Amino acid sequence: MIEVVMNSPRHSSFEIENMQSLSNCTYFDSTPNKNRSSPDLSMYLDKIDQSSNRFQKLFKNPNILRLFNSHHPQLLLYLCDRIEDLILLSFDKTDEHLSKFVFYYLLISTDLAIHQALISDDVLKRTSIIALNRKDDLFALTRAIQLLQYTIQSITNEFPYTLSFLCMFLPYINESCVFYFYQSICSCDECYNSVQNWLVEINFPNLLVEELYQIYRKAQFDDENEVQKAINILKLISFCKDSNKFGKMFLKTKLIEVLNDEWHVNKGNLVNDILLNELWITTSIFYSCETAPLMRGLFQKAVELMTEPYCKLDQYRISVIDVISSMLQVDELLQPFIANSHLEETVLRLVIQFPGHSFLQNSLLKLCSTAFEIPIIKDHFARALISSLVFEAANVYNNSILAFTCDLVQAAINAGHTDKLFLNGLKSMLGFDEFMNSILKPRMKLMKNGYGGRLPIFKQKAMVYDLDLVL
What we know:
Number of strands: 4
Radius of gyration: 32 Å
Strand content: under 5%
């Protein structure tokens, strides 16, 4: 039995009116007085407990909420002893009003006694198992997750062992409520410090990677739940990359090995494009000087995904370009292979094929800027791109291609500041001088004078136009 401690001063009592079932009971007002006593609810609660629908009768009493908010010890003890039944009642959406009342007013409360009842014994574990066993009952699962998250937020000391079951939700991470729960407790919010320390102890990153690896091994990519599970795990891993507690722990798992695996066509099953998006986003996030030697096996697949023809631009195509840019910058052993792949031809095709796609252009510009710094590659990129794009920008009215060309030429000029031979080669290209004088220099002058680019927010008030003059 849970010991209930009074959290507020004792109050005066008076007779509860208009409630036949409480005719012999007294109720206290909200005026604190240390010399007055709390009402005795024992007879009333015993009578309520004998009813088949005890909670329905109890919570129909309009005074119960005020008694609860005043931390009445007998009422709190009654509720805490029946905390599991209350949780299950909150899972029941047949009586929506009662379910909401129990959940939001009683269980999700700041009352210390209720919090102690939730973390004592294995009450949350038992009710969570019940919610998980209710097939296709997302309502119960969501309530169980919300209650668990709120209980964790309320922990001020060490993480209680009774909540160590929270990893049993991992196989259900395909559900949004479960994914956002794990994302929340892995966030930088200080209220999750205790649970994060415990997650570090049990090596939570390794559990995530193992779950992802099992999905890869089963290769059930025609199963929507399995695909969504893999997507959400990858999102969570990417989210944790910058975590001070979890980020470096992933490098001690077999995550890099899993990312190196052949996901794209596994046992004859084509992988979902959304899953490929998350795979390559995670790959680009975790690619670094430290992981580069372990990720060389991805190079050929990355080149294939960038250079093959496609009519729709998926996110993973852009992430692949980012990975190749990082490879070019970090791994000198891959530079000759990248040079032989002639990616500059694909860059030109993509700029013209997908004009106005800013994310693509940013990634391509990063690739080109990196290439201009690599001696064995810079000339190939300059010859293939600059003359063609200068001609395209001058003859095709497309602001995005024009802007990309200006940025590209500027990046090439910047690289030429330390390589005069390369700079002279740029100046000798067809159309370069005319583009510089008629387009790039005037544009740079406008940019310098404050035209274009991003202005600081609220730097100046919006101009009010006279509608008659505009028309």
